[in-house]
């Protein structure tokens, strides 16, 4: 299993009783731990949604569900304060500054990248430097702007060492902050920029070929958010061939936004 796949998501549900679900969850926990070298990970959440099949995974979040209870008192400022004080995973030791995120308070689109890089770590802002310029070009192409109608953040808020991608346990530790932000900001749609962001948020090991080109659904507590996936802006500059499919993703996002303008 890819190290970028922190959580399996279960949509198997037809006709299962509580005991069967519990047995299946235990089996999946054992399998997951075995695939990770026998390491006992944090307890995972499984979505035994009884609703008809959807066009995508719809993971629930136990941590966010708990937090959602007092979401009425939450604010970007309090989330940022909690992030800045957080020592829940080892990345607290490798950050200069945490990067909670920034942008519109009522965003059309919430753009989620992976972890802060060197420039983000230095200034405390998401998508800084070249990565930010590239993202802004992508957003501008479909009438979006990073501070005008988008909110930008990452699946983890602290820089990982040696430019590595965040580990499953790190994205898991940080997920509650991201879920609080999504619940609070309630964007029209979430755009995952890059495979790490998509796999972490959607708790899947699916690759880009599976994840791109459609609108999926993300369940957090009692809310469901549409999610689209495209490449990270840096991917496009490292591989020219990805520019066309990324443009196709953006055009689909624009069509979706236009079609859902009044919701
Ligand atoms: Fe806390 Fe997230 Fe930073 Fe880890 S990455 S220390 S969970 S804020």
Give a verbal description of the structure.
The chain has 263 residues and is of the alpha/beta class. It folds into 2 domains: 1-59, no CATH class; 63-259, Uracil-DNA glycosylase-like domain (Uracil-DNA Glycosylase, subunit E, 3-Layer(aba) Sandwich), CATH 3.40.470. The chain has 10 helices and 6 strands, in the order αααββααβαβααββαα. It has helices at 18-35, 62-68, 76-84, 118-123, 129-140, 168-185, 195-202, 208-211, 233-238, 243-259, and strands at residues 102-103, 109-113, 150-154, 189-193, 216-220, 223-230. α2 runs parallel beside α6 (168-185). The longest helix is centred in the first third of the chain and has 18 residues, at 18-35. The radius of gyration is 18 Å and the shape is globular. 39% of the residues are buried. Residues 1-14 and 25-66 have low confidence and may be disordered. The structure holds iron/sulfur cluster. Residues 83, 86-89, 91-92, 98, 156-158, 170, 173-174 line the site of iron/sulfur cluster.
Share of residues in helices = 25-40%
- Extract low-pLDDT stretches: 1-14, 25-66
Query: How big a fraction of the residues is strand?
Result: 5-15%
The tally of domains stands at: 2
Q: Find the structural class using helix and strand composition.
A: alpha/beta
CATH class of the largest domain: Alpha Beta
CATH topology of the largest domain: Uracil-DNA Glycosylase, subunit E
Q: Give me the side-by-side strand order of the main sheet.
A: 1-3-2-4-6-5
Average pLDDT figure = 81
Could you provide a short overview of the structure?
The chain has helices spanning 18-35, 62-68, 76-84, 118-123, 129-140, 168-185, 195-202, 208-211, 233-238, 243-259; strands at residues 102-103, 109-113, 150-154, 189-193, 216-220, 223-230.
